[in-house]
Design goal:
Elements lengths: L1 H8 L2 E8 L6 E5 L4 E6 L6 E6 L2 E2 L7 E9 L19 E10 L21 E8 L7 E6 L11 E6 L9 E3 L2 E2 L3 E2 L1 E8 H15 L4
Antiparallel strand pairs: 1-14, 2-10, 3-9, 3-11, 4-8, 4-14, 5-10, 6-7, 6-9, 10-13, 11-12
């Protein structure tokens, strides 16, 4: 029992980091050569998961929806003023890549499963945890190369316009769109670390007598 308890205590636990926006104002379609890219800055180390509102226009779409996490290779970061075009690919370094099968996505409009709906459903995209992710800017890019720009062969997600996410901008096909892609960031930590953090948060919230 002791060994089992220790093993559980050190097992991984997915912990929410933050969400870029609480509501959307536009459905975005994706397929073929098109891309959606969002700059994010995690609050915690161990970034390991991005959750998206993601649907397929038709059942049984082929291929994979690809998610890439990148950072600027030379360490430069736009800061408060975001450039109209993304840095060139040779200035970006791929940190993680992951994917989800298009055939596994819910079908229909992304609005049907968006935040606050009865059928709200976020699609988790997992990758190996980035140990030192806290406070570092990352570019999260979404693509569906097996699809096309033809209706019925695309996937859909949600975005908010205008942008109110102070940590980054949305880029459509590498051009600044002045919006925010709806996504949630999560990280990995052990059960023990999660419990210690929860206790510390509770202690700060309790009144001092």
């Amino acid at each position: 029992v002791g060994f089992g308890a220790r093993q559980w205590w050190q097992s991984p636990w997915v912990v929410a980091d933050h969400q870029t926006a609480s509501a959307a104002s536009l459905e975005m379609k994706l397929g073929g050569a098109s891309t959606l890219a969002q700059w994010v800055v995690p609050d915690r180390d161990g970034l390991a998961q991005v959750d998206l509102i993601l649907t397929a226009e038709m059942e049984g779409l082929p291929g994979m929806v690809e998610l890439t996490v990148e950072e600027v290779a030379d360490g430069a970061f736009p800061g408060a003023v975001w450039p109209p075009i993304l840095p060139a690919p040779d200035r970006r370094r791929v940190v993680r890549k992951s994917s989800v099968a298009a055939s596994a996505l819910p079908t229909g409009s992304a609005w049907r499963v968006g935040p606050g709906t009865r059928e709200e459903a976020w699609v988790p995209v997992r990758f190996e945890a980035i140990a030192a992710s806290r406070g570092r800017p990352y570019l999260v890019t979404l693509a569906y190369p097996s699809g096309s720009e033809t209706a019925g062969n695309r996937v859909a997600t949600l975005a908010r316009f205008p942008n109110r996410y102070t940590r980054g901008e949305l880029y459509v096909n590498a051009f600044q769109a002045r919006g925010t892609l709806l996504l949630r960031l999560s990280g990995d930590e052990t059960v023990a670390a999660g419990v210690r953090r929860a206790v510390a948060n509770l202690a700060r919230a309790m009144p001092v007598l």
